[in-house]
């Protein structure tokens, strides 16, 4: 089977982290993550609970703040300032998107860059661009790169096409894959909604990464025979055959694309579990840096 099993790879990474965390706890340095959710968006609630649950499973210190939707920006900033000062907290994450009255950029910039385990603070964005190893790399791009490395997919010299140029996925992923070294050295093309002839651009890819948020947009005519396809998209579509009335699909039309691929990630069970695993890894990295543990 040509599936990249993101769930299994994430489990392997989490079990390595569990050992590291046990060692840090033995030295009285339990890694601590604070996750803040403003509002009651059900998908965001599910993400926040899953992050909190994973922290507990790994033996990390985890604090979850579920704030009402009417929380003011000033209240949120006060909480972030408190967490910045809290020595038990090494990572701070504000679940995106916040309600419209809150300016996300201001909130991200209020987080101490040393605790910005999402990697969205301008200091970390710059560090990623500079190739500084102390950077916190955004979790989803880091997870995509790790999936390729763990699956022995050669990125050096490969033509990689990334569909999507967001600051959360496409842009940082392009930076990672073009860096020198393991999981890098690729020739990267970033395509977006203004690109001409997407199928032709994508057919040039040895590795195609879809991160656009359009259900099953990437069809077989986008994919070269033998390509590796990473599907970042998470889209909920109506499905009357399901009890819930809906199901999750990626940005790739899996049934028609999979037979052409050398390797492909499923949705769910591909990139999603890696994103959480990389968040845990970044929090452990933050804890080590805080306590200057090599
Ligand atoms: P954004 O909406 O921020 O960005 C989407 C990008 O796709 C933009 O660059 C946009 O182009 C481009 N795009 C949109 N429509 C098209 C189109 N028809 N043709 C070409 N390009 C298009 O999304 P995110 O990056 O935040 O997320 C992308 C997907 O990844 C979503 O499904 C999201 O749910 C999923 N996701 C999954 C995660 C995981 O853990 N697996 C984590 C984060 C996101 P333009 O810039 O021109 O508007």
Walkthrough of the structure:
With 294 residues, the chain is an alpha/beta fold. It has two domains: 28-112, 3-Layer(aba) Sandwich (Rossmann fold), CATH 3.40.50; 139-273, Rossmann fold (3-Layer(aba) Sandwich), CATH 3.40.50. The protein has helices spanning 6-26, 42-58, 73-85, 104-110, 122-130, 139-150, 170-178, 198-203, 254-257, 271-290, and strands at 32-38, 61-67, 91-94, 159-163, 187-191, 207-210, 228-231, 235-238, 246-249, 263-264. The strands form three sheets. It has a five-stranded parallel beta sheet. A hairpin with a 7-residue loop joins strand 8 and strand 9. The chain is globular and about 50 Å long. The chain binds NADPH dihydro-nicotinamide-adenine-dinucleotide phosphate. Residues 140, 163-166, 168-170, 192-194, 198, 211-214, 232-235, 271-272, 275 line the site of NADPH dihydro-nicotinamide-adenine-dinucleotide phosphate.
Radius of gyration: 19 Å
Beta fraction:
15-25%
Low-confidence sequence ranges: none
What is the CATH architecture term of the largest domain? 3-Layer(aba) Sandwich
CATH class of the largest domain: Alpha Beta
CATH topology of the largest domain: Rossmann fold
Number of strands: 10
CATH superfamily of the largest domain: NAD(P)-binding Rossmann-like Domain
Widest β-sheet, arrangement of strands: 5-4-6-7-10
Q: Please count the helical segments.
A: 10
Q: H/E order of the elements?
A: HEHEHEHHHEHEHEEEEHEH
